[in-house]
């Protein structure tokens, strides 16, 4: 009689350990300690055969390339459940493979998703910037669908209200330079105005859309991954495309003009109001910059705040 298969013990990648420990503290370390056991349990119950753990992988999730019982390739993602990631499965189910990776199975409370296999080492960052932006826009348009009746997605106004509250609290902290506080005030005022004047009906937004979150696929050329879904206006989703490849943009002569041209080109190509794209890019860059300063990532924080001044 054949013996039962032994549980697969896979260790989380170094980057996952580092980021979750830094961002979540003791709670994050406790989650990491139980992660190998949770992954082993999912592999056994879902009848998956692991091939390898992706490294560096996600910042708050462990990603394992697997084979299903019928030998079909798939990807197992087990992530930290947060307010931003809680409804990732619902967004993927709503898109049902249209513009985004297809969801095969999920246990949302455990942060566990079984996804179709994409080419994890080939993102839009592998393309020249102009071509990558064209492909990014084409893919993003397919994601902007009605969120559905009775949907679980938080609105942009509600989500950014939480971000704005945290930003106000951090504004006076020693890690925020004095010269940046006026920029924080501007970002908060812009956010309030954008929410007060939000146009039209809400659509389902990716929430974290940038070149690194669009991977090469087999059934279509490119598919989005890793949404942090919210419901709201399309301009919000363009904010991260405006600041994509930021390190390269900073090193380019005329960075400020280049950033403003991005706002214009992306707005025009997707028929979205330029001022609203600029406003959300400003707010999101300032919020991300101050958050980075708060967790000790001074280089990223200063970079995002500098970018915000260009807008």
UniProtKB/TrEMBL annotation:
Identification of the protein by name: Streptomycin 6-kinase
A GO biological process held by the record: secondary metabolic process
Origin: domain of life: Bacteria
Keywords: Kinase, Transferase
Annotated organism of origin: Actinacidiphila glaucinigra
Pfam families xref list: APH_6_hur
GO molecular function annotations of the record: kinase activity; phosphotransferase activity, alcohol group as acceptor
